[in-house]
Design a protein that fits this description.
This protein is an alpha/beta fold. It has two domains: about 5-150 and about 295-375, 3-Layer(aba) Sandwich (Rossmann fold); about 155-290 and about 380-420, 3-Layer(aba) Sandwich (Rossmann fold). It has helices at about 10-15, 45-65, 85-100, 110-125, 155-170, 185-200, 220-230, 240-250, 255-260, 270-275, 300-310, 320-335, 345-350, 410-420, and strands spanning about 5, 20-25, 35-40, 75-80, 105, 130, 145-150, 175-180, 205-210, 235, 260-265, 285, 355, 365-370, 375, 380-385, 395-405. The protein has a seven-stranded mixed sheet with strand order 1-2-4-3-5-6-7, sandwiched between helices. Strands 9-8-10-11-12-16-17 form a seven-stranded mixed sheet. The protein has a three-stranded antiparallel sheet with strand order 13-14-15, covered by helices on one side. Helix 3 packs parallel to helix 4 (about 110-125) and helix 12 crosses helix 13. The longest helix has 20 residues, at about 320-335. The protein starts with a strand and ends with a helix.
Length: about 425
């Protein structure tokens, strides 16, 4: 059923060619393995995220297995193209559990897919490590004990965004705001949480427009012209991936970025945007993402980015670091427990997770919040500036403002209210 290849021989090209592959390392004797069932998109606007995630998993698995594995077990990963389709992803997740007997479910990019797979995880009591999707609904409204996320969620990004906008209001005196984001859980979470955090931090403002295009909308012209008529001081965007690139490219001829501050705090600062647009990318856009290739300037982050570039020939999108973190989170838990099958003890170990990741600045270590199973991390927001150190990008983020991890997490009153709903 699955095409097996050595991790050393696996290439990103093969991932694009085959809908299902296995990443594994051969070893003599009876196999003691930690079997992981991963789902990532491999084609279309979301395809880069899947390919980067696979490459980062390859890196982490090879690093761990080359040192003897974890507690006597070798890591073995099954990959399937999620096709960004919740119903299809549910079928694959069930097959992973019932036929392949995986120890962990893993990955996904779309929050819609994540919300579907978490129900499978809950039904079959199988731990699901979320590595990229960001809707807070998975750790608040739809919380269940077998789900853990190892990258920032939208609430954390919107809390950082609200703090940034508070500072910006003092500097620029902005009053009017508009929002545009994809019409599904991910987009709606961002707008709800931004409003909550602006109120939480005492920011006064007027909403002049809210827009909900479908994911993968090919033409944003009608939205752009309407936003121009709204005349906001700040336009907050909630796109991700190729939708971000498409919206910005289509906005340039209309002079949108000369008329307002463009602010994209969750996924706007992804390297994919920088590499796709080069000199065409406007300067002065305010962006952030869940991982940055040029921040923090720590040894661990520099090594991660350089190693990824050597493996793939390109610099990583933020999805790569999330996938890398997910493999090390599993290794952490199995090492603590001593095996990959004792689910209750693995949950306990993951709830106590403390792990130094490439995105952690000096003096901070990512950790899991046991009440939500959401990793707690710092966030940096920057501005597009000239930078040719990461070609083909000629712009990167700079002029950073960094926000403390504990200031970004939702209060328990917020969590309890959403779980009641």
């Amino acid at each position: 059923m699955f095409k097996k290849v050595s991790i050393i021989m696996l290439s990103i090209c093969l991932v694009a060619m085959f809908s299902i592959v296995t990443v594994s390392t051969s070893f003599a004797g009876k196999k003691k393995e930690i079997l992981i069932g991963a789902l990532y998109p491999m084609t279309g606007r979301a395809g880069l995220y899947g390919k980067d995630s696979v490459a980062a998993v390859e890196m982490a698995v090879n690093e761990i297995n080359s040192k003897g594995g974890v507690a006597g077990y070798k890591l073995n990963v099954l990959f399937t193209d999620s096709k960004v389709n919740p119903a299809y992803a549910v079928r694959i997740a069930k097959r992973y559990i019932l036929e392949d007997k995986v120890n962990f479910l893993f990955g996904v990019v779309s929050s819609g897919v994540g919300l579907a797979v978490t129900q499978v995880s809950k039904k079959y009591k199988k731990i699901f490590i979320g590595t990229d999707h960001a809707s807070t609904r998975l750790t608040a409204d739809n919380f269940q004990p077998y789900y853990f996320r190892v990258s920032n969620n939208t609430f954390q990004s919107m809390a950082a965004g609200a703090l940034y906008l508070k500072d910006l209001q003092k500097e620029k005196g902005w009053k009017k705001i508009a929002f545009i984001g994809p019409d599904y859980a991910y987009g709606h979470s961002q707008w709800d949480e931004l409003q909550y955090n602006l109120k939480r931090y005492g920011v006064k403002y007027k909403v002049v427009g809210v827009y909900w295009p479908k994911i993968y909308t090919p033409d944003y012209t009608s939205y752009i012209t309407s936003i121009m008529k709204d005349k906001p001081d700040v336009l907050v965007a909630g796109f991700w991936g190729g939708d971000t690139v498409a919206f910005i490219k289509q906005s340039i001829p209309y002079g949108l970025f000369k008329k307002m501050i463009y602010f994209h705090p969750d996924a706007g600062g992804n390297y994919e945007l920088m590499s796709a647009m080069g000199d065409e990318l406007p300067l002065g856009l305010v962006l952030s993402a869940r991982h940055h290739d040029n921040w923090p300037k720590t040894k661990l982050n520099k090594e991660f980015v350089a190693k990824f570039h050597k493996l793939t020939g390109r610099y990583p999108s933020y999805a790569a670091e999330g996938a890398y973190a997910g493999i090390y989170a599993i290794a952490y838990a199995v090492k603590k427990v001593g095996n990959p099958t004792d689910t209750s003890k693995l949950i306990e170990a993951l709830e106590g997770l403390k792990i130094k990741l490439p995105e952690d600045p000096k003096g901070f270590t990512s950790y899991m919040r046991p009440e939500t199973h959401q990793i707690v991390q710092m966030q940096a927001i920057g501005v597009t500036v000239p930078n040719k150190n990461y070609p083909p990008a000629t712009r990167m983020l700079g002029k950073w403002k960094v926000y403390k991890a504990e200031d970004l997490i939702p209060p328990m009153s917020y969590i309890k209210e959403h779980r009641k709903k």
